[in-house]
């Protein structure tokens, strides 16, 4: 597999993963999200047989455009991730530095 094929594969995988994350922002219910995930997979599989570089580039550009349009205004953030409600709530003390008492 050539470097260009590897780069293209990673680009499509990234696009698919970002599409799933965007869908998860909109579909909180697991059953609804799963249906949307299957639908997304079918859309990606339908485009997997494209061979002409111009058609492939157009399909990727269209998917990126749709992803931008469907971006959620308040995306889901995992509670322990940066920006989440529990991020750094209970930070472990740094045992390498002595405690400073005032």
From TrEMBL:
**Location of the protein in the cell:** Mitochondrion inner membrane
Q: Locate the Complex 1 LYR protein domain: which residues?
A: 12-68
Q: How does it sit in the membrane?
A: Peripheral membrane protein
Name any Gene Ontology BP term. Answer: mitochondrial electron transport, NADH to ubiquinone
Q: State where composition is biased (Basic and acidic residues).
A: 86-102
| Record CDD domains | Complex1_LYR_NDUFB9_LYRM3 (cd20263)
- InterPro entries according to UniProt: Complex1_LYR_dom, Complex1_LYR_NDUFB9_LYRM3, NDUFB9
Question: What family, per the record?
Answer: Belongs to the complex I LYR family.
Q: What does this protein do?
A: Accessory subunit of the mitochondrial membrane respiratory chain NADH dehydrogenase (Complex I), that is believed to be not involved in catalysis. Complex I functions in the transfer of electrons from NADH to the respiratory chain. The immediate electron acceptor for the enzyme is believed to be ubiquinone.
- How does the annotation summarize its subunit structure? Mammalian complex I is composed of 45 different subunits.
Q: Spell out the protein name for this chain.
A: NADH dehydrogenase [ubiquinone] 1 beta subcomplex subunit 9
Organism expressing this protein natively = Linnemannia hyalina
Upper classification of the source organism reads: Eukaryota, Fungi, Fungi incertae sedis, Mucoromycota, Mortierellomycotina
